[in-house]
Amino acid sequence: MNKRSCSPRPFNVLLVEDNVDDVLLTKHAFKNIAVAVEFQVARDGLQALKLLRREHPYCDAALPDIILLDLNMPRMDGRQLLSELKHDERLKIIPTVIFTTSAADDDVTSAYRSHANAYITKPMDIQELARSTERFVGFWLSDVAILPS
Cα–Cα distance between 79 and 70 in angstroms, integer? Predict the structure, then answer.
């Protein structure tokens, strides 16, 4: 059993996403689930790295339980961030789930070669996004997957 599921502390999800509408839709989809989730949002890979490494102005930021990572972003994209994360001894244990609109075989293969923990294509339909969110939570934030503490 995932000992975190017994804890009153909400799951901390780092959403790395540059599209404001996608951030709002993702947060909305998570509101209708039975698991408490708190979001930290980074608009690109550079901001995410600062947050994860607790650099100014994120000195007090909590490390997330899981990272939801878009691939296509400015400055540092999701591919570059994933590589950085998986080469950092402290950060590589945080499960990183690619959450993007791309279903291209090259993107999927590249993500798994770079040690992504899962790859989810963002649904374009709001109902499908809700179902996808429920499946994500059912695996990652329930008693199925055990996350590092």
Answer: 9
Residue count of the chain: 149
Measuring CA to CA, how many Å separate 77 from each of 13, 64, 72, 118, 120?
Answer: 18, 19, 5, 17, 17
User: Cα–Cα distance between 18 and 140 in angstroms, integer?
Assistant: 23
Apex CA 108: angle with CA 107 and CA 109, to 5°?
Answer: 95
Inter-residue contact 42 to 23 (CB < 8 Å):
no
| Alpha-carbon span 145 to 58, nearest angstrom | 28
Alpha helices by DSSP H, the chain: 20-31, 45-52, 78-86, 105-113, 126-140
Residue pair 130/29 in contact by the 8 Å Cβ criterion:
yes
Question: pLDDT tens across 60-98, in order?
Answer: 999 999 999 999 999 999 999 999 999 999 999 999 999
